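Collaboration report, partner site 2.

Our partner group contributed sequences for two proteins of shared interest, and the home lab folded both. The records are reproduced in the order in which they were received, starting with the first partner submission.
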Amino acid sequence: MPAKNGSQYIERINNNLPNVWLAGEQVKGAISEHKAFKGLMATQSNMYDMQLDDKWKAKMTYASPLTGDPVGLSFMQPRTKKDLAARREMMQAWAYTHHGFLGRAPDYMNTTLMAYSTAAGVLEEKTPQYASNLRRYYEYCRENDITLSHVYIQPKAGRLASLLGFLEHPAAARVTDKNKDGIIVRGAFLLDTQGASSDEILVYPVPHSSPDADDSPYAFAFAVPSNLPSIRFICRESFVGGESAYNYPLSSRFEEMDTLVIFEDVLVPWDRVFVCGDEEMACRLFDESSFHIHSCTQIMCKNIAKTEFLLGTIETMIDAAGLGSYGHVIDKVTEVIIALETLKALQLAAEKGASANRWGIMLPNRNPILATSAYFPTIYPRMIEIIQLLGASGLIMVPDEKDFETDISGPLNLYMKGIGLSAKENIQLSRLAWELSISAFGGRQTVYERFFFGNPTSVNNRLYHGYKGRETLKQRVQDFLFHS
């Protein structure tokens, strides 16, 4: 199947039947009808429908290099700046559909897999079969429009156990055996966002050091269907407040479930293995694929759409409360405007400054890419704080939609209206601001953005060591001081 539509996406996920646990119960039946997944899957169904809609098809798809059929454009390996622009326009269109609230929208993982596939040549040096596996898997996902999730991180117990080798039963995920059919994997991973509502899962943890670095049980990368019987997904608490789009305008549509994934001696077939045992190769593939650079082009689209949505919400709140003439309010709004324009400028600079890498792939300029990956996690919490400061008590006193169907609707209509908004409209705006800033859904979004690419120290380290031009600038100052 080439590019799929929304109903095909829903049908495939419903037929998948992975082993999913939520609130002490195993999820049974059609997952698209479960309250924890219904809104998200409906949103993504609409996104997939765009691929085959006459209005969007030319922007959302491109011709498969194998069959000529339309496939998702976010799978495209960009070889020109025109390709980069086409990918950006496609991803921006999807980002505006979910307003930046889906951190793991399908185009994120499509881009991730695309990035790894472009560097498959790294694997040919030692393991040509693994290189072939990776290329074929990329083609399989592209030609069948596979909805992917992924895991990199292990629970703290796993990280500690790998360091404390004397533990009798180490908790770190590892390869426990190999046979003619494949490798056997045991362990747990987090944070598999959308793992329960995806076709397959890409597993690529940061390898733990091992005494035998040439055959480390902790160094591996592979992909498997999410419904293998030895894989279990344990969900966190659902943050869907309810199905009412009035009461819960965001969580009813955009709540992505995060899961702990447990592998209980899972057999991974050899043709799905990309790295096994070689720590150096695992690190090189990760680095030379420029995963962070490629994936951040998708993230930039998400972050711009999200910032625009926050700015629109703030402006609507100001109008409804009549706060537009206050200097301190204007100061706060300009912070968000500056953030938005900074993100847009960095996106443009990354694309315009792109150049081909050793694989012939057009790679965006890493300097603005790394800068934005360090910038957004710091500015997003501030934008949420601005909503809290402007909303104040209006974020707390938020009646329910059903209140307007009772005898108390009269007082509500009298006392709760805003400037240019009826009471019901004003409460609806307050509920949006509440979900953004102080609800469980909003709190998860803020933490997610803070640590999207790792802890701040790791992100800043990546920026500092990856930033090109520091030595040139240092030399310029030294020439000015000592050689002028």
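Second partner submission, folded after the first:
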Amino acid sequence: MIVTSAVRHAAAGTAAVLFVLPVPAATASPVTSVVPVTSAASAVSGLPGASAASDASGASRREPTQPVRHHVDPARLDRKGTQVQPLPGAPSVPSLSALSWVVADASSGEVLAARNAHRKLPPASTLKALFALTALPHHEPSEQHTVADSELTGIGDGSSLVGVKEGYTYKVSDLWNGVFLSSGNDAVHVLAAMNGGWESMSRQMQDKARSLGAMDTHVVSPDGYDAPGQVSSAYDLAVFGRAGLQDPEFTRYCSTRYADFPAGSWSYGIANTNRLLTGENGVARYPGLLGIKNGYTSNAGNTLISAARRGDRTLVVSVMNPQGGGGLAVYEEARELLDWGFEAVEQVQPVGSLLPAHTKAAAGADSRAVSVPREGAAAKAAGKAMAVGKAEAAAKAEAVGKAEAEAVGKAEAVGKAEAAGNAPRGGAEAAAVPGKDSAAGAAPSGASVGLPLALVGSACAAALALWARRRRSVDRVS
């Protein structure tokens, strides 16, 4: 009878523990998710744990679809000619006369298409975008500055000017309007003087370009005026444009069409020279345009960085030195690229990225397709599955009785102590161990299989201890 009672307690305790245990295949084995390289509209396959959780708890618990990661050849943008990876049905890339150009998604930094992206060419006043990225954070817009005569020396012949005068006092915001709208080299010289001087500003801009991953740019003259050795590329200009859109001040200045510029006791109106923004001189205004910066010198030809928003999508394009169509061709070719980009954005695979190398690495191995445990998503799925399992087990354990529930608690404590070196420490950690990948579809590990057996033994031991304690209590009473 003694043996029968002990076996009954052990069996009850074991059954209660087994009810609590999650299914090993759903929660204890590492989850390996392989992301296929398909189209921009494809989605990552669901996780096994997430599927189990959603089946048990309803559609409201379903895990969100993971974003697609594309394979990007990092050397592709170094090649000459047009680079694009169209999917079936994608629109054809427009045939343009520009020596180089880039179309990219401003949010993700993915380059949708490009031509001679890293060809080094004179940037003209589009270099002012880099100047603004470097100098804007150093002074408040409302700060006032009185211009010294020395700050206006050295301005190149034929430079575009906004009309800054020595001895006059200007707000910093007025000077920036002069930079962005009138492309005023005089305003650039004053702001550069306020930030350490011409040579210092050149070094600061060079450092800023490198920090953004723009390796083609060499700064000699911060205003973009032609200077020996001064070059940039369509890729770098797109990087500067994308970075500028992340700064609300930069975006406000570059998208301003008209402003008043002070001249002592009065002011006069200035208009943005970006024709796509204002819709002047025979160029139709582009819907949703955010501006950025245009430029021209006899050596650089026409250059342009433009960005436009349509719905929840923002694109940035850069165009350098069109070879045909006259002085307005740069705007029309940018228009064609924007139109193509908005139409093709879900129908092409990226050919590169505007993100700097260290950012790509932090975001996930250069945006390549990956095959690693998705710790966060798997942990959530495992936690949900564990919660469902525990809820069911609680209902069943209540029917077993108070004595068996106590045995379950003791068995869990003993089992955790014995399995501490071999098993995950909880439902949220049972899904994956960083750095220990397993092949997709592999069987559960030895620790995962051994965990139920260890707890069964612990349950039996706890149940026998409970029975012995009760037996002693009965003997003392009798």
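Feedback sent to the partner group on the second submission included the following. The longest strand covers residues 301-310. Residues 17-69, 365-451 have pLDDT under 50 and may be disordered.
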